[in-house]
Design a protein that fits this description.
The chain is of the alpha/beta class and 457 residues long. The chain starts with a strand and ends in an 8-residue tail after the last helix.
C-alpha cells in the first residue's frame, strides 16, 4: 500500500508513523517545516514562552511566600526566544528521527492534487493508493482597513518578537488571544482585549469565561466584549477603532495582535480534476476521514472538526488504520479535551452547561470552589478558581467537566478517560484521589452534584 501524506504537521507525521507501523510504503511531503504549526509556530513555542513568563510571575510573588533577596527579576526576551527555539529544534529533530526509524520518505516539496490518487510533486505526476490531506490551517486575515499597517501582527509574529512592547491591543478573546494576553502581561506589557462576542473564550463553559475575565482584569488587562472592530489607524502609535453598544470607542497600542482564529489551507486543491466536497471552507470527511473522492482522505485542521493538535493526531492514527484495513472506532469529537494555558489554566471536556440545555437534557450541576482545596492554596492560585461537573439527572452519567485553576490542563485527562468509559458522577466520587492535590477538586466537584462535597461551606 503506497500512501502519500500532504503536510508534515502533527497530524501528518503521526499518521505517517502509524501507517508505516502497519506496513505501508509512506511518503510525507511538507513544503515548509516538519511539525507544522503546532511544533514551530503554535502550541510548543507558545507554551515555552509561557513557562518563562510563569517563572517571572513566581519571582514577583516570592516575597509573599517567604523568599527574600530576589526582587527585581525581569524578562530577557532574546534569551527567552533562544530557549524556545532550542525546544522547537529538539522536537522537530526528533520527528525527523522517527520518520527515519519508520523508513518514511520525507520530501520538502510543493504538492498539488490531480485526482484522488494522483498528485503533482514539484510539477511531476505521481500516483499512490491513497492520498491524505494534512495541510493544516493559517491565521485569519481580517478584511478591515489597517490590517497591513506596520505593527499589526499575527500569532506567528507575536512568538518571534525580541523586544517587549509597552502596550498591546489584541483583537480576539479566544484561546489564542487570552493566552497571549496572559503571556505579555506577565512580561510587563499593558494589554487590552477586544472581543466581538459577549464573552471571552466563547466555546468554553460560561463559568470559565466569567472567572477568566475577572482574573485577567485583576491582572490589569482591559477586556472589551461585544465589541466589533471597524479599523486600525495610525494614531498614537496604532489605534483600534471598534463599536460597542452603538458607540465608537478606541484603544491605542504599540502593537496590535490579530487573534481572530484560523482558516484551512486548501490551495493544494486548486486546479484538481476532481471536485472535493467542502463544508464552510473545510474539507468534508466521514467518520473514517474519507472525502467524497475515492482514495482521498483528510485529517487535522483542514477538516475543521476540532482544530486541536491532539485531534489531528488521533485522526491521523485512525485514518491510517482505516486505510490499512485495521478495525477502528469513529472519533467522538464531543469528548475531546480542550486546554487554555492562561494564568491560571483552564480546561474542559464534554458538554458545557449551555450545550446540555440546548440538547434538552435534564442535568445536575456541581461547582466546587478551589479556594477550599489545600493544594490550590499552597500554589497561591485560589482566587476565582473552581471545578464544575455536569451529570445526567436520571442516570448520573458524567456529561462534562470544566476546570479553572492550577494544573487544570494536566487534570483534564482524567475526565477524558471518565467520559470514554461512560463513568457516572458517583463513580468519580468513589475514586480515591491523592491528598493534597488539586485533582481532589474533581472528586469534590462530583460530590457537589449531590450535595456531598466534604470541604464545601
Amino acid at each position: 500500500m503506497k500512501i502519500l501524506i500532504i503536510g508534515g504537521g502533527i497530524g501528518g507525521y503521526v499518521c505517517a508513523i502509524r501507517a508505516a507501523q502497519l506496513g505501508a510504503d509512506v511518503t510525507l511531503a511538507e513544503r515548509k517545516h516538519l511539525g507544522g504549526t503546532c511544533l514551530n509556530e503554535g502550541c510548543i513555542p507558545t507554551k515555552a514562552l509561557l513557562e518563562s513568563a510563569q517563572i517571572l510571575d513566581d519571582l514577583k510573588q516570592a516575597e509573599s511566600l517567604g523568599i527574600e533577596g530576589i526582587a527585581g527579576g525581569k524578562a530577557n526576551m532574546v534569551r527567552m526566544q533562544a530557549r524556545k527555539q532550542e525546544i522547537v529544534d529538539q522536537l522537530v529533530h526528533g520527528v525527523g528521527l522517527l520518520l527515519e526509524k519508520g523508513n518514511i520518505a520525507h520530501l520538502t516539496a510543493d504538492v498539488r492534487l490531480v485526482d484522488g490518487k494522483t498528485v503533482q510533486i514539484d510539477g511531476e505526476e505521481k500516483t499512490f493508493d491513497a492520498v491524505i490531506l494534512a495541510t493544516g490551517s493559517e491565521p485569519v486575515v481580517l478584511p478591515l482597513p489597517g490590517m497591513d499597517l506596520d505593527g499589526v501582527i499575527d500569532s506567528t509574529d507575536a512568538l518571534s518578537m525580541e523586544e517587549i512592547p509597552d502596550t498591546m491591543a489584541i483583537i480576539g478573546g479566544g484561546v489564542i488571544g487570552t493566552e497571549f494576553a496572559s503571556l505579555y502581561t506577565s512580561l510587563g506589557t499593558k494589554v487590552s482585549i477586544i472581543e466581538m462576542m459577549d464573552r471571552i473564550v466563547p466555546p468554553m463553559d460560561p463559568a470559565i469565561s466569567e472567572m477568566l475575565g475577572m482574573t485577567l482584569q485583576a491582572r490589569g488587562i482591559r477586556v472589551h466584549t461585544g465589541a466589533a472592530v471597524k479599523e486600525v489607524v495610525e494614531k498614537d502609535g496604532l489605534t483600534v477603532v471598534f463599536e460597542k453598544n452603538g458607540q465608537t470607542q478606541e484603544v491605542s497600542a504599540q502593537k496590535v495582535l490579530v487573534a481572530t482564529g484560523r482558516r484551512p489551507v486548501t490551495d493544494v486543491l486548486e486546479g484538481a480534476k476532481v471536485q472535493v466536497a467542502m463544508d464552510r471552507r473545510f474539507v468534508r470527511i466521514d467518520q473514517m476521514m474519507r472525502t467524497n473522492v475515492d482514495g482521498l482522505y483528510a485529517i487535522g485542521d483542514v477538516t475543521g472538526k476540532s482544530m486541536l493538535a491532539h485531534t489531528a493526531m488521533e485522526q491521523g492514527i485512525r485514518c491510517a488504520e482505516a486505510i490499512m484495513g485495521k478495525k477502528t472506532r469513529p472519533i467522538e469529537y464531543g469528548k475531546i479535551p480542550s486546554c487554555l494555558y492562561t494564568q491560571p489554566e483552564a480546561a474542559s471536556c464534554g458538554m458545557t452547561e449551555p450545550v446540555a440545555q440546548e440538547k434538552g437534557l435534564a442535568i445536575e450541576v456541581g461547582i466546587f470552589p478551589l479556594f477550599n482545596n489545600a493544594r490550590t492554596l499552597i500554589a497561591d492560585q485560589a482566587d476565582n478558581t473552581f471545578v464544575k461537573i455536569i451529570a445526567a439527572k436520571d442516570t448520573g452519567e458524567l456529561l462534562g467537566a470544566h476546570i479553572f485553576g492550577p494544573y487544570a490542563t494536566e487534570m483534564i485527562g482524567e475526565i477524558a478517560l471518565a467520559l470514554e468509559l461512560e463513568c457516572t458522577a458517583k463513580e468519580l466520587i468513589d475514586t480515591i484521589h491523592p491528598h493534597p492535590t488539586v485533582s481532589e477538586g474533581l472528586k469534590e466537584g462530583a460530590g457537589s452534584v449531590y450535595g456531598e462535597a466534604i470541604h464545601s461551606l
